[in-house]
Design brief:
Shape: globular
Number of helices: 6
CATH topology: HIT family, subunit A
Number of domains: 1
Number of strands: 11
Helix content: 25-40%
CATH architecture: 2-Layer Sandwich
Largest sheet: 9 strands, antiparallel
Strand order of the largest sheet: 1-2-3-6-5-9-10-8-7
Distance between the termini: 33 Å
């Protein structure tokens, strides 16, 4: 549809705008993602005679997976309920869905698009701050990690512990905090709930935060994750999507799927 094609052009422009620290300048329709999920994906999954625009819709778990028009293999996980973003109190209730777990389980869409099997430590999930996004419906970016960030995390990973602490190096010029999650599939861990007390401890709101989740392998071979956090400050929109590579250059070195 022309509307969707127009959104693709807008999304491409937004990608440049984020780089230029002007993410809100291109938010012509901040409800575009919600409109797609609410008006097309969810009704189609329920049997309505409308085109299915999503790669997957899981009505019982309350989320949809949508191929982003930006990037060769970038997908978005989007709740089917109205959830504004990282600042939403609904993410911190005891019975809230674990959207990060659902997004990690959806990483196979990236592999299939690339015809490659990405190593665990080259897959990343990002959610931007309220100031560093263009859409007012929660969405988690599922995509390749940037090659230089992957290499940096391999080097500093052994020093990342299970409590929040600043990384010893800057990423894209920004100081990130990091912690290790020893829960190989996030069955018992919700990254939003790990972040909330850390943000409160620093006197910050959740809306000022950004999160990046990266698969990891510990020195003993156990599967884990690294959770990275940045927050809005002068000159920093807190968009951890900056640590992803929407061209997926790492895929060139990954195992080709049969």
């Amino acid at each position: 549809m022309k509307i969707v094609q127009g959104m693709g052009r807008l999304a491409a422009l937004c990608g440049v705008a984020v780089t230029l620290a002007l993410p809100l300048a291109c938010a012509a329709n901040p409800n575009a993602l919600w409109d797609i999920v609410h008006d097309y994906c969810e009704p189609a999954a329920e049997g309505a005679p409308v085109k299915q625009k999503c790669a997957d819709v899981n009505l019982p778990e309350g989320y949809a997976v949508l191929k982003d028009l930006v990037g060769v293999a970038q997908y978005l996980l989007i709740p089917t309920a109205r959830v504004s973003g990282i600042e939403s109190p609904a993410l911190l209730t005891p019975d809230s869905p674990n959207y990060f777990r659902d997004a990690w389980n959806a990483r196979g869409y990236v592999d299939r698009k690339l015809h490659r099997t990405l190593p665990r430590d080259e897959v990343s999930l990002a959610i931007n701050s309220a100031s560093g996004r263009t859409q007012n419906q929660l969405h988690i970016h599922i995509d390749c990690l940037a090659a230089d960030v992957a290499q940096t995390l391999r080097e500093v990973g052994p020093r990342i512990g299970t409590e929040w602490a600043p990384l010893p190096v800057r990423l894209r010029g920004h100081v990130y905090s990091a912690m290790r999650i020893d829960d190989d599939d996030l069955s018992h861990t919700d990254p939003f709930k790990l972040l909330a007390p850390y943000a409160a401890q620093r006197g910050q709101t959740m809306g000022q935060q950004t999160l990046l989740l990266v698969g990891a392998v510990r020195g003993d071979g156990a599967a884990a994750f690294y959770l990275l956090n940045d927050h809005v400050q002068p000159g920093d929109w807190a968009s951890s999507e900056e640590l992803q590579d929407h061209t997926c250059s790492l895929a060139d070195r990954s195992i080709e799927k049969p």
